[in-house]
Specification:
By secondary structure, the protein is an alpha/beta fold. The protein is built from nine helices and nine strands. Strand 1, helix 1 (13-24) and strand 2 form a beta-alpha-beta unit.
Length: 235
């Protein structure tokens, strides 16, 4: 069984070495890390190349920019039987791969908890789920989305039959919303109340705990309507 880790990068030089170290030690020789870069202007790609590891593939995102399209670009190049999503600035706990693979024996998607930290990995919240009072179930998730893609892994079957292609309007259907909604609505997901990554929050973080901080109330409502329409259309 081959594993693919899909990572979207953009100006992630500061933390990416630590993240890749935490991932590579859990992978086998035939596994892969697909890094889709969205036009980084810093030393991100040099930091990646310094590993000189054949398991790491760098692919430039020449299409529409933004973290959702960047992840989609990485996913389209994944060849593994199991796909893990990874941010560029977190740190995987040593048992993440093992626990996710075990959960995926009976499910198509696994979503797990995270321990939140500051930029120096000082713990700010032991449980992301507890901090944001995350409630299980599709309707709870639709009303108050708090799951993050960095805490997800899924089968190639789920990727091919459900996930790709992403909905057209990435602004109204962020990739982690899309994955969570699909898995929960079609009852193919399992949620582990167990932190499996150190979820680093800092000034450069693309999202604020799973929600755009600048969204208006109407935009949040429309986002859920748009995503629900897309989920229902994905047979």
């Amino acid at each position: 069984m081959k594993l693919s880790v899909c990572m979207a990068t953009y100006n992630g030089e500061k933390y990416i070495h630590e993240q890749l170290e935490s991932i590579l030690k859990q992978l086998k020789e035939n596994d892969e890390i697909i890094i889709s870069d969205d036009g980084s202007l810093d030393g991100t790609l040099n930091a990646v190349r310094a590993f000189d590891d054949a398991r790491i593939q760098i692919i430039e995102n020449h299409g529409e920019h933004g973290y959702t399209r960047n992840f989609e670009n990485a996913l389209t190049h994944a060849t593994g039987d199991i796909i893990f999503i990874s941010d560029q600035d977190d740190v995987w706990m040593d048992n993440k791969v093992e626990r996710c693979l075990d959960a995926l024996k009976d499910h198509e998607l696994v979503i797990h908890d995270a321990t939140m930290t500051d930029e120096n990995l000082n713990v700010t919240a032991v449980s992301h789920f507890e901090k944001y009072n995350v409630q299980d179930g599709f309707w709870n998730t639709l009303l108050r989305t708090r799951y993050t893609g960095a805490c997800m892994a899924f089968t190639k079957k789920f990727l091919v039959e459900r996930v790709l292609p992403f909905p057209e309007e990435q602004k109204y259907c962020p990739y982690d919303y899309w994955l969570a909604y699909l898995g929960l609505y079609y009852k193919e997901a399992v949620v582990l109340h167990e932190p499996l990554i150190l979820y680093r929050r800092h000034e450069g973080t693309a999202l604020n705990a799973g929600e755009y901080s600048t969204r208006t109330a109407w935009e949040r409502i429309y986002t859920r309507i748009y995503c629900m329409k897309e989920v229902l259309g994905r047979k």
